[in-house]
Amino acid sequence: MAAILTTANFRPESTAEPCRQLELSLTQADDVDLAAAIDRYTRRVDDLANDQFEAIATDVMELDVWIWSDSLPLPKRTTAITTVKTRDFAGNLTTQASSGVYRLNSSLSVAGDRPTGDFDSVELLPSALGGAGLAVVVGSPFTWPYGAQAVQVTGVTGWTVPHPDAQRAVALLVWNHFTTSNAALRRARSASAGGEQIVFMADGRNPYNDKIASSGLPEVDEIVAELYRDNFAGV
Questions:
Q1: What's the pLDDT tens digit per position in 132-179?
Q2: What are phi and psi of 152, to 5 degrees?
Q3: How far apart are alpha carbons 29 and 37 in whole angstroms?
Q4: Of 7, 86, 164, 195, which residue has the fewest beta carbons closer than 10 angstroms?
Q5: For residue range 20-49, what is the model confidence (pLDDT) as tens digits?
Q6: Predicted confidence band at 233 (pLDDT cuts at 50, 70, 90)?
Q7: For 86-135, what is each residue's pLDDT tens digit?
Q8: H or E segment to which residue 45 belongs
Q9: CB-count burial class (<10 Å; 0-12, 13-18, 19+) for 44
Q10: DSSP codes joined into one string, 168-230
Q11: Sequence ranges of the domains in the chain
Q12: Half-sphere exposure of 67 (CA within 13 A, CB side)
């Protein structure tokens, strides 16, 4: 899995834009702890936005098929498919030909740096367009086989080039993790500073999108609300 940010991005000498004014010294966070935090908060932003902003080069997706169709929705943004296998009722896998049988509809651009659609799918090529159909399946070779984990798709998933706003959200969460050392502030709803009352965000739902839990940081909540990706029905 490619990292959405590196430890070097947070160091004072870095010019990485997502980490501007979020510098961390080695005293505040050594490379091991910082790398672990980047990984953890990347997963958190992925979960909050219901997306995957880092690329996984070899991702195996086991897919349930509960409707006879020539279109198979994919649960992740996918930029390339390396292998498609169908599974029979005995659990045997059959590798399908990669040419003339199916094609990928990706929701990302060719460069993998911006969305071009909402959902990803694997489409069987119809016979009218020269499609050869699936091999060794029960039923029509031009519909995906029915059942739990009936299809296994291996490919490249996630954003090839991370969304810069997602990088900023991860940077904010990581920096907050290492710099908020006062345990009371982590639990407080308000605090006084310089004669002014500071009111923190309430726990619970994201104020910009009530489908999402709040991260506790206003800028992060605004980013993930804008980046949030709805699930495809049935995925």
A1: 999 988 889 999 999 999 999 999 999 999 999 999 999 999 999 999
A2: -115, 120
A3: 10
A4: 195
A5: 999 999 999 999 999 999 999 999 999 999
A6: very low
A7: 999 999 999 999 899 999 999 999 999 999 998 999 999 999 888 999 99
A8: helix 31-49
A9: middle
A10: HHHHHHHHHHHH---HHHHH-SEEEETTEEEEPPPSSEETTEEEEE--S-HHHHHHHHHH--P
A11: 7-53+162-227, 56-157
A12: 8
Does residue 235 carry a pLDDT above 60?
no
What is the secondary structure of 115-130 as a DSSP string? BS-S-EEEEEPPGGGT
d(CA 13, CA 21): 11
Residue 172 CB-density burial (10 A; 0-12 exposed, 13-18 middle, 19+ buried): buried
Answer for the pair 150, 69: CB distance below 8 angstroms, yes or no: no
Strand partners, 147: 65
Cα-flanking dihedrals φ and ψ of residue 45, to 5°? -65, -40
pTM of the model: 0.85
Name the average pLDDT for the chain. 90
Whose CA is closest to 78, among 59, 97, 101?
59
